[in-house]
Amino acid sequence: MAMDKKQVKEVIAKRVALELHDGDLVNLGIGLPTMVANFIPEGTEVFFQSENGLIGLGPAPSEEDIDWNLTNAGGMPVTLLPGGCYFDSATSFGIIRGGHVAATVLGALQVDSKGNLANWKIPGKMVPGMGGAMDLTVGAKRVIIAMVHTQKGAHKILKECTLPLTAKQQVNLIITEMAVMEVTEKGLVLKEIGPETTVEDVVAATGAELIIPEDIKHFGL
Amino acid sequence: MKKLITMKEAVSKIQDGMTVMVGGFLGCGSPDKIIDALVESGAKDLTLIANDTAFPDKGIGKLVVTKQFKKIIVSHIGTNPETGRQMNAEETEVELVPQGTLAERIRCGGFGLGGILTPTGIGTEVEDEKQRIKVDGKIYLLETPIKADVAIIRGCKVDKKGNVYYSATARNFNPLMAMAAETVIVEAVEIVEAGELDPECIVTPFTFVDYIVGGDK
Description:
The complex is a heterodimer. Chain A is an alpha/beta fold. Chain A contains four helices and 16 strands.
């Protein structure tokens, strides 16, 4: 039975959550990556940074507790967990650029076998801007891309990105509903495949060559 | 020195063609009342330096809709379709700067520094025409300082001397901009007497603030 859109996103977010470790400081991008916070395994304490100026991102507030001075990097009201703190934008990016963030989870328009990422610009069409993505990819110790494997059937995982880059050779891991792939010096290594997928399906849906070990396990079952 | 001024006086400091820094992050912590007054004043051909262009009906985005900028220097325009439209139609010049680099360029402007060396943007369009400098074997881009004629920022509590206390994530770019402009106007949510703010909680020292407006709360 094919997964619906919501299930696809949940499968991805759940698998990404397994990559985060106790005590990690993590920055989640807007959209699908934000969902990762809902699936942190019990017993693992992860701290989330929001680049607009806080560590200790908590859940969304109820209607009556909304404080418009307390928002996330998407401009939406959030809460601060006990022990959380605030800082200005220079400190926030010092945390990011200075290597103090264990992992960042971001979406992508394209990502390639060299670990290049494109997610800020489609020339002539859509130019949202890079926001904090260029700093995050350069500064975070680990860059995890969380995205749906293809865009309406078109490949997003390529031999080489064709869109303007956000970062050169900074991506470490790509997680989709179909696969977990690690960027290595030799190329993309297929580590795991999704709950309703075969290796052949993954190969067909990927625009880059995959290094396929003999023993591949399923995730998300 | 009396720093408290009326909104009319505040807006008169921002004249056609000036470069203006505006605090805020997607509308959070932005000086909304000064922005509304600027929409009324019609000041034009301004250059904007801000984190983003917020939303068409919120924060600095309102001044994009009224076409009061000739140039916009920000890290993100994705939440305001009008900015993208004006950019694509070549009505407004848009310079996109990585957020951390933007923060540092503003900080350099205020701190008297000649620039910073950052790894951000290496191997991307951001690198174009910039000087690459190698330090201890690693390549960095030289990013230069930026300053403004006027900075308009927002504080949650401001004392009559001009010391500023922010609240939560409403801080963002505000304290950096408070140091990087010729004239600094703070919109206060609440104005208190000097001595009422805990000096340990003051983020922007009064010396950077020229004028205070608002305090209607």
